[in-house]
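ugh ok fine here u go
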Amino acid sequence: MTYVFDPLVPRPIDQPTEVPLGAPLSPEQLAALDEAKIFVGPADPADRPEWRARLRQWRADAHEQHSYHGRAYDRPEAAWAAGCHTVAQVWLWDELLYSFEERRFTPERFLADAHQRFGGLDAVVLWHAYPVIGLDDRNQWDFYRDVPGLRELVETFHSAGVRVFVDYNPWDVGTRRGDDDAAELSAVLADFGADGVFLDTLKKADPALVEQLERARPGVVLEGESKLPVERIEDHSASWAQFFADSPVPGVLRSHWYERRHMQHHVRRWHRDHTEELQSAWLNGVGVMVWEVVFGVWVGWSQRDAATMRRMVSVQRAAGELLREGEWTPLAPLTPEAEAAGVYASRWELGDWTLWTVVNRGDSDYLGPVVDGLVLDLFADGRVPARGISALLRVAEGAAEPPWLSQVATLPHDPDARFPHRLATRVVHKPTNGMPEDDAVVVPAGPYVLTVRYRGRETGMYQGAPYVDEWKPLPPRLHDARTLQRDGSLASPVAVGAAEVTNGQFAEFLAATGYQPAEPHRFLAHWVDGRPAAEDEPVTFVDLDDARAYCAWRGGRLPTEDEWQLAGETGGLRRGTPAVWNWTESEHSDGRTRFVMLKGGSDYRAEGSEWYVEGGRHAPDYSVKLLLPGLGLARGATVGFRCAWDVTR
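structure:
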């Protein structure tokens, strides 16, 4: 297969934009700069004064062309966004944020980790539905509203000084329909007291949506996923700088140059080296998205990058007024020695204080002078670390030091850039000693090799990331048909139930044992007055623990995904009506995400978006990786189970 792009190289649309020099910009050139993500930094220091002049010309022209007034940034309820330098995208069921053992949210643990490694967070995006939405007919709003204790979780974040974004998935058009999206999103904002909305897959929100959300939550902050059109900086207080490639000599972020109060967050979700994002954010006075668990895949930050983040936010939070209101000189003049070493800086001047935010693009520490004259090294490094940052402050002679200086911590640079790998480990099932059902399909003992088919989603499969250091994954690298090989050995024959457990059989189990789940939410939600309406249909609205409890009562257990496939490929497994996915004994955890492999497929299929879990019936060799939610949300209308038994005689 011939790819039309190299996934490890930025695409043309990711690249920064050259600023024409040599003459004032023409109307056509000014309009072209409206489309920039980053303005290229000129390599020759002699060109930089004119470059800065051309940037100022563009900004003045763009303000005039778009009748810019900035009133959205004057809203007192939204003023926090201009200082929101660090935001984390977090899956609601991240095992730092939720304890499956205690069955409760653990924001104190999540925030303590963020404080220790990143210097704390200014905001979180509570990610909720994708990549599990589409498994059944629950819509994106259900995946918020049906979470017990979510309002209290938001309040806990607020008490810690952390703002909360909810996520809007405009592509969710094929699940259960309720009110229109604007009304539903407005209600979610009001119900949970969220501060902002992340616009998944969108650059901008429709003006009518902006207006309605503002009525529902005055001061709401909207943040799109990619390059925000210049004219919409007016009503979107923040935007992602996602997959923005910088120039070799660091450039200027167009949206933040246009409006200094507009906060941008650099993010490259699949990258393991965040140096370029961090350095661009430091030079531009903006922020970074921390996203360590990307839809169930561990993409953790190195100690070096986390230390750089800690150092950045210590200054950015303390000197916020200077960064927003001071005179900003990008690519400020430095000593020739610093320039030759690949050291660059922005200069910020306000009253008696001048701050330089400094980066070292080189692979060696720079020990020489950065600027002429005496300056205070805020990190007390005495150097600009390789691939790191520095902060220098000059106070005018006879003037007082800034009152915020005491808030800046002299945090050390950490050179350890190794990727912090995690391995997902399987929950080991216990052997069984019960008698299998008479018609169970027996899989013989001994070694086996399986070919597993799956769809290439952002969730990956068992170990590692599906994309490493890739720019935006696109077809044929996304949602394509893939295979993997699994091999193992069965110590003894295994009998797999020929049919799924039915509602009637599960009712017998409840009557015989009095079973009560530790977490009752959504348990047998389709039953009426404690009884099923259709006893012969596969039981659903049961989670892994419910299924395990039933199978243990029958002297068995759940089959592993391999055992299920081996039995299915004999042709001996029957499907109930309606067909439902089957739980398997394949629970894994890497300490941050729990997942399981589903088998069989279901008759339900959500239509209208490629982002849904794929529905329909599937052959035995097909698997879907399902991220496990907590608090009963794993229970749904399209997942049932069958049991298995170890045959020991």
